[in-house]
Amino acid sequence: MQEMLPYFLSDSQLRRRLATLNKVKCIKVGKRKQGTEITELGIEVLSQFENLMTANEKKAVTLLE
User: Fold this and answer.
1) How far apart are CA 26 and CA 22, in angstroms?
2) Closest CA to 39 of 49, 29, 48
3) Which residue from 55, 34, 17 is spatially nearest to 4, judged by alpha carbons?
4) How many other C-beta atoms are found inside a 10 Å radius of the C-beta of residue 21?
5) Cβ(6)–Cβ(64) under 8 Å?
6) What is the pLDDT of residues 14-54, one digit of tens each?
7) Rg (Cα) of the chain, in Å, rounded?
8) How crowded is residue 48: how many other Cβ atoms within 10 Å of its Cβ?
9) HEC string of 1-65?
């Protein structure tokens, strides 16, 4: 997952963020190498964030990818 990010997060930072997203039901974390899956709620939240982003913010995110 770290390789997909445009910036570095330590393992503990990444685990904390995943735990928070799991707690608010935006993702579902599998047990023992089952992976992590975004939920319908997570997709909706992500869509809302994308709609709120300005054109310049969207350009910045694209450049980081």
Assistant:
1) 6
2) 29
3) 17
4) 19
5) yes
6) 999 999 999 999 999 888 888 899 999 999 998 988 888 87
7) 13
8) 9
9) CHHHCCCCCCHHHHHHHHHHHHHCCCEEECCCCCCEEECHHHHHHHHHHHHHCCHHHHHHHHHHC
Q: Is-contact 45 26, C-beta < 8 A?
A: yes
Burial classification of residue 39, based on how many CB atoms lie within 10 Å of its CB (0-12 exposed, 13-18 middle, 19 or more buried): middle
The answer to whether the beta carbons of residues 22 and 14 sit under 8 Å apart is no
Token pair, residue 57, equals 């913010």
Among positive and negative, which fits the CA dihedral 55, 47, 1, 26?
Answer: positive
Collect all residues with Cβ–Cβ distance below 8 Å to 46 and sequence separation of at least 6.
38
pTM of the model: 0.70
